[in-house]
UniProtKB/TrEMBL annotation:
It comes from Sandarakinorhabdus cyanobacteriorum. It comes from the Bacteria. This is Winged helix-turn helix domain-containing protein.
Length: 100
């Protein structure tokens, strides 16, 4: 949205292109101008509470490929983890980024 606006597109043109209302475009433009941050980005992942167990599991796996679904199953079974697989995936990606 902001890229289109910077390219000189009108708010109504951006709204048509994205299939949203002009009010939505104005809202997001105003939020960006105010420097507002999406609250979801500040949420702590549920998996953080099991960081020590995740690190232990990672150490036991060595340097090979990692099966996050197996990690999630292990956390649920052995540590009573109640979060989603997606939460574990997000935690893993943030904590152990892939080498460049």
């Amino acid at each position: 949205m902001s890229v289109l606006l910077k390219q000189g597109q009108t708010q109504s043109a951006v709204a048509r292109l994205l299939g949203v209302t002009e009010g939505a475009v104005r809202y997001h433009r105003r939020r960006r101008a105010e420097g507002a941050v999406d609250g979801r980005s500040r949420q702590v992942a549920k998996a953080v509470g099991h960081a020590e167990a995740i690190a232990q599991w990672r150490g036991a796996c060595g340097d090979g490929a990692v099966n996050i679904a197996a990690l999630h199953d292990w956390l649920v079974r052995e540590h009573g983890y109640s979060g989603s697989l997606k939460s574990v995936q997000r935690y893993w990606a943030r904590t152990f980024p892939a080498p460049a």
